[in-house]
Design brief:
The protein has 324 residues and is mainly alpha-helical. It is 48% helix and 6% strand. The N terminus is likely disordered. Helix 8 crosses helix 9, helix 9 crosses helix 10 and helix 9 crosses helix 11. A hairpin with a 2-residue loop joins strand 1 and strand 2. It is built from 13 helices and four strands. It has two domains: 193 residues, Lysozyme (Orthogonal Bundle), CATH 1.10.530.10; 50 residues.
Length: 324
């Protein structure tokens, strides 16, 4: 072919395009063979449209909030006027903004969880801002269990849980008891503060361990964990807590438009039954008190078996749930 032949001439000599045969598609539609696919597409569209109602605006997702000049956390002012502090904070702001599923679920759970936890923090002299550790530890899920074996809202390992007075057996695991695990967390946090006198360093020690953080402070000759060179998980941990405070106090900054009715409410128990002996069948126990076995277990996640043998004769408080 002549390389200088005009493009128009080449098109004139090309075979005419054929129209695709759409008859099989219409026949399949008439016979209902594509109905499941159509239904799935419609449901997918509906779910997406509903999910978008939690985010402000109807266009693209908003940008992350800018790094603030400072944050007051547990009474201390944390500034981001150093480039490394600024960039570490910026990273976590981006992560929170775009982690839609976890962020939204944490928001919805927060009213129920904080209602139970904050009075205990106040009672034990722990600043309320320390409640945000739970968001990072467990996404505010009382059922959380890590691959390493840490459990509950505060993610205690078995050994540490027992050290701070929690019962952990095959039938009872108080790491899932919100009241008792929170009291244990308060003991840990108070002990750490007496050591460091700095709440951000206390937070770092909750992730990295008091021994590890103390060794780093000594070897790097620093007084605050914010200035330490740490493994990435612990380094990020402190900034994630600061961003969590911003997020829960003002979710609109992160593009979330959550109405008061979207939060899961806390329901007061109908009653609390003190048990010092054995309960041979928890399903029977539940029916006796007018609730289902499922409702009883959901309200008492620390009950890990279908019965309570209680050989040690401990006195346990079993919640009979109320609400809707």
């Amino acid at each position: 072919m002549n390389r200088t032949q005009p493009l128009m001439d080449m098109r004139l000599h090309a075979p005419a395009p054929t129209r695709p045969d759409t008859r099989p598609l219409f026949q399949a539609l008439r016979r209902g063979r594509l109905l499941p696919l159509v239904v799935c597409l419609l449901l997918s569209f509906g779910t997406t449209a509903a999910g978008q109602s939690f985010y402000q605006g109807s266009g693209t997702h908003p940008s992350p909030p800018p790094v603030p000049q400072f944050i007051v956390f547990a009474g201390d002012t944390i500034r981001f006027d150093r480039s490394d502090l600024y960039e570490r904070m910026d990273r976590e702001l981006i992560a929170f903004t775009y982690s839609h599923t976890n962020s939204l679920l944490m928001l919805k759970r927060s009213e129920r969880i904080f209602h139970q936890v904050v009075p205990l923090l106040n009672l034990h002299g722990i600043p309320e801002d320390l409640k945000y550790l739970m968001a990072i530890e467990s996404n505010l899920s009382p059922k959380a269990l890590s691959t390493a074996g840490a459990a509950g809202l505060w993610q205690f390992m078995k050994g540490t849980a027992k050290e701070y007075g929690l019962v952990v057996t095959a039938e009872v695991d108080e790491r899932y008891n919100i009241e008792k695990e929170t009291v244990a967390a308060c003991k840990f946090l108070r002990k750490a503060y007496s050591r460091y006198h700095d709440w951000m360093t206390v937070a770092a020690s909750y992730n990295g361990g008091q021994g590890g953080i103390s060794a780093k402070l000594s070897s790097q000759m620093e007084s605050s964990a914010m200035d330490l060179y740490l493994v990435e998980e612990t380094s990020r941990y402190m900034f994630r807590i600061l961003v969590a405070k911003m997020f829960f106090e003002n979710p609109a900054l992160f593009g979330f438009d959550v109405k008061p009715s979207d939060y899961y409410p806390y329901y007061e128990p109908r009653k609390v039954v003190n048990v010092s002996g054995a309960v041979g069948d928890l399903a029977e126990f539940a029916k006796k008190h007018g609730v289902s076995y499922m409702q009883l277990k959901e309200a008492n996640l620390w009950l890990r078996d279908t019965k309570l043998v209680n050989k040690e004769g401990h006195t346990y408080k079993i919640i009979i749930p109320g609400g809707q």
